[in-house]
Each structure stands twice: as structure tokens, then as C-alpha cells.
Amino acid sequence: MNWENINVQFGNILRKMREARGWTQEEFAMRCDISRAYYGRIERGEHSITLDLCRKISDALGISLAALFTDYP
Description:
- This protein is mainly α.
- The protein has four helices and no strands.
- Helix 2 packs across helix 3.
- The radius of gyration is 11 Å and the shape is globular.
């Protein structure tokens, strides 16, 4: 695994999960209780997030926290 791009890879995984549900960035950010601009930076891999935010994201997606990381190579 190329650890230099871990934030980008995570952002791509989130984008796929969000788009699979038909949500815009704004809709998903509201479900996560964060700003759309902040979520956009996460999705582009420009920001490394905390475990607390990972929990909010997994809750919004209706999946376990571990499921956020199952698509990593």
C-alpha cells in the first residue's frame, strides 16, 4: 500500500459510498454534522480525519466503523 496517498484513497472510498446512495456532498455533510467545504476537503484527500469523525461518517452511512476500511487495497 502506498501510505503517501492514504487520505486520497480514503476520500475516493467515501466518494463511492456517498454516490452509491445518491447523496450530494452537501447532503452527506449535513448527515455527518460537518460543513460541505470540510467534507469536500476530506473527499479530495486534503485533510486527515479523526476517529470521531470516522464514527460520524459510518453512522451517517449506516455501516460499522470497520466497514469504512474494508475497500483498502
